[in-house]
Amino acid sequence: MQETHYISENLISLLAYFGIQVTPQSWAFQITALAGIFTIAWLSNWITKSLLNSRVRKLVLKSKNQFDDELHQHGFFKRIGHIVPAVFIYLLSQLLIENPALLAFLQKSAVIYVLISAVMAISALLNTIEDTYNASNLAKKAPITGFIQVAKLFIVIIAGLLIISNLMDKSPLLLLSGLGAVTAILLLLFRDTILGFVAGIQIAANRMVNTGDWIEMPKYGADGDVLQVGLTTVKVQNWDKTISTIPTYALISEPVKNWRGMSESGGRRIKRSLNIDIQSIRFCDQDMLDEFSKIRYIKSYIQAKLEKLQRFHNEQKIDSTDLVNSRRLTNIGTLRAYMQAYLENHPDINQDMTLMVRQRPPTELGVPLEIYCFCADKNWVNYEGIQSDIFDHLLAILPAFRLRAYQRVSDKP
Prior knowledge:
single chain; 413 residues; alpha+beta; SH3 type barrels; three-stranded antiparallel sheet
């Protein structure tokens, strides 16, 4: 209080020097004091900004650490600087303002401004942490966007309670005790937030979905890369470049197809069938066998099969010309062996993963010969090109095995 009277008396003396007679309670004194307070606050703000823009920026540019660069980019230092003039207003108002109502208004306003500036600065800090984390390899294991949003929400709620308690001159603990009466309303308002927070913990703990994963959720029209796993929504950029938003809790309550396993594996699966016309299937005669023996991939297969069949016929004393009792090669079986050998020699097929050609049960569309293997190139465009080249070749080579692909032909002219 002594400092207050001392400063007030000096200000009154200064005004008297200019011929203005005032008292500490007069409006002329209060207006002069306000002008002085805001002038000092403006000067402190200007000095703070100058220091932050010159000194701090130079230090940030010289530093090799990228974290302070991110802080500067998100405006952390600039937002911290706003606290300084508010502190000056709060302190000087105690020393110069005699009017209780005006003093309370200035101090409450200064406290609110400090709280808002602090919230903005903490938000910039959290944004910096999020961007730094997302740029690291850890982001591929567990996204933290949801947790950052929860932290921001918590800080805003705390700041809101402090602002309300400041305006009402009540303890924040008293306000917190009164929240129990409106718990049901709060649960209803923050239902998605609470569900999203719980889902975010499970998603992060179990590594269910990460940023950059390719996921499919037909119910929400989502088929593409995950852009962001937020507190309440997950953003997915579809392959047609549209954006789908999915409730975060839906990732643990709805079926989700995640292609991350394929991306992290050694290949991308090819699973497609050739439908062979049943009427073109037949036993191989000698001319066909002679032609097949000239094919590099199955030359050894033909020889080994013929030797095996010859041993069987000799052991069973069966004449090879006996069409009923003898065993013979078929053109579809030989084609299947060729397809297997062709894939085993293909440079773009991963030979360390499952590779087979299997015959599926006949249908009204013919006999399916299904290729099941993994393309070594997982890039979508390259994968589709390699898969198409394989089936282009196999479709074109069918006549060499006296086979036809099934094709439904209309009876109408």
